[in-house]
Known about the structure:
two-stranded parallel sheet; alpha+beta; flat
Amino acid sequence: MTTAHSIHIGLNSVARPSYRGWAGLLRACEHDARAMQSLCIAEGLTPTLLLTAAATRAAVLAEYDRVARALRPG
Length: 74
């Protein structure tokens, strides 16, 4: 049985200090992440959604670690 893992990250802005003062103001990244999440839900998956405020480096890495630990051969 194949199990899929789906992580959707949408950043409408970034931390200025990490990007040499650029705020990375974007309009649709969170919307796109939600749209992809909806497609996965429609296919029976239980995706993870991390949006701007919650999508910290630590949160993203923790989610990758969680998924990596859950992976099995096949």
